[in-house]
Amino acid sequence: MMSVIGRAQPRVDGPLKVSGKALYASDHRFPGMVYAVPVCSTIANGEIQGIDTSAASLMPGVHAIFHRENIGTLFRATVNHEFGADMVHLDETRAPLEDDVIRYYGQYVALAVADTFERAMAAADAVKVTYRSLQPNVDGQLAPETNRKTESERGDPAKAFGEAEVRVDQTYDLPPETHNPIELHASVALWDGTTFTLYETSQGVVNHRNVLAQMLGVSKENVRVITKFMGSGFGGKLWPWTQSALAAAAARQLDKPVKLVVSRRMMFQNVGHRPRVQQRIRLSATRDGRLTSLRQDWVNHTSILDDYKENCGEATPQMYSVPNLRITSALARRNVGSPSPMRGPGAVPGLWATESAMDELALKLGIDPVELRLINEPELDEGLKIPFSSRHLKECLTTGASRFGWAERDPRVGSMKRDGLTLGWGMAGCSWQAARFPCAAAVELRDDGTARVSCATQDIGTGTYTIVAQLAGETLGLPIDKVEAVLGDTQLPAGPLSGGSAATAAVVPAVLEAAGKAIDALLALATTAPGSKFAGRKAADLEYTSGRVHPKGEPATSGIAFETFLRLGNLGAVSGLGSSEGCGAFGTTKPKFSSHSFGAHFVEVTWQPEIARLRVSRVVTVIDAGRILNPLAGRNQIEGAVVMGIGMSLFEETSYDQRTGAPINSNLADYIVAANADVPALEVHFVEYPDTKLNALGARGIGEIGLAGVAAAIANAVYHATGVRVRELPITIEDLLT
Ligand code: MOS
Fold first, then answer.
1. pLDDT per residue over 96-143, tens digit each?
2. Is 704 a catalytic residue?
3. Which residues contact 170 (CB under 8 A, 6 or more apart)?
4. Whose CA is nearest to atom 4 of ligand 1?
5. Hey, what CATH topology would domain 32-135+182-231+237-267 get?
């Protein structure tokens, strides 16, 4: 045992991907399939006055031009935020084409369907829409705001701040960021007169099915959602977007399979984004560096109809020991599509601000920034007043400092040089909640000596097929090539969202239980199968070890291969079903422990003032994410997240045209993400302390934690190199020339 878990296991789905055999949503094609292209609003605020489809309808190959009058009824889903098999959640709650009001640029107003993609494009272009247009509001200054409310509170922060010896009071801005996974959003919808089969790129097929059933007005047994492979999601694909309902509705109206692929430009308009966030941070401390108060007041933009809250206070109440704290949130409505989660929602923007402010406080105090964090390490979660299940932030800080060589740091701005370059060294701590969603899974032992493990969670590119196969292989004592992992289909036992870095923690207990039950069923079979050597014995006297059944106390090598009993019993398989409750922030129970992953980033930048060139030249990241089930996949997650952090710090920003409300850099030439040349070699280290309060193997999630804190560490390094404190991302050369 314990031979498969913890091993650097390459992706079991790797060969399918590199050979092009893995089918993504838009790769599916069916006889008679037609292509749908949405018509997007060219205003951001106003009303449709008329839609003239006469020219478009007559174009060659056109099957239909759908709009509000002829798409059929689409309902608003009644949300149920409770995680699990009955969850119904989406960020844009308005059903597509529901009314004639335009609330954001690019809003779908019609849908052209034709026998080829090109003809559908041409028809969409030929639809003439007239509008009554109003001035849109996409203002980047987020006051005035609505709904300011308290998120967390303790002590009297105003009083403590007023009396404090050392204070920081600054505002930190984050621009809107757009998810840009390589795989575009896409829906291929089939309707057979009773049932919809929807090929989607979904981070949660079960929720997607529940939402679409409601929008389409059918029972959820009549919707099947399939996501076998995904070219990444990052939260943008957590919830269904309106193109899915449009494709399904068109398939029903036309009685044909319909494919709808969202364009890269529409990715900036219609399928979520991280909202603009402005945060005022007030910190105070004693001269010797003890925090006395922390206030975080944030506002994020949201759409006209939806209350998307970027939960910036996610990590704040428990990150450091501070007796007086207040966190408030507010929303500012803008003419933009609904925002949505983006990797590390809340905590990533929140830590950008609070970890920048901690650096500013360290400077004022004249205390090393690592030391300041060590001084303020809490004994327990002071927000929830419960113990941590496992917390090793201090070790992340000290290990990172020693691996980076932090002791060599000269704190004076611009004082460190190498090869004619000015060096900046900065660091930040990070945290991300650890939780478990409810989950069910099935395990089968089959008559060919293999096992099958299945669950309606999905692999969003992070390695879930591999982890699930490892878990089953570990429990069954079978090599991983004897285990088939089947995911991404609502016909399988209801599995969790691939989100919140909580899928792995969720599947562990369910798969372990399912495997145990499959073994129980096998042992029972061994006592009853005709001709079995163990016929007539008690199952309790038998034991299963690494694929063999043997009497307890006798060596496993003397046992009989499990498939023998299946053949004797004339059974294809025995199976077990396992399930587990949610826990922590995504569960239904009141937590006894506060569970989070922790970490620290240490960053070196190089600065050449002569030519205004800033590079990230070195990153050392140390992560406490419990037991690492697969170091290859784990490291890959953290490295990818740090790359996103470099993009967030230096490049990414969605720009809206103030006159039209259009996202104007809506392509990968103008919306800059980090490329290879922007990314140095990344050093990732795990401190491995199993968090067995979360599951038997002690694994926490490991996606979003890697992005948290990176932007602050880079901004802190930039200050150290240049003396310029940038409080508005992205950090541009222009900021550093002032
Ligand atoms: Mo993550 S933002 O929960 O996909």
1. 999 999 999 999 999 999 999 999 999 999 999 999 999 999 999 998
2. yes
3. 280, 281, 356, 357, 360, 727
4. 235
5. Aldehyde Oxidoreductase; domain 3 (3.90.1170)
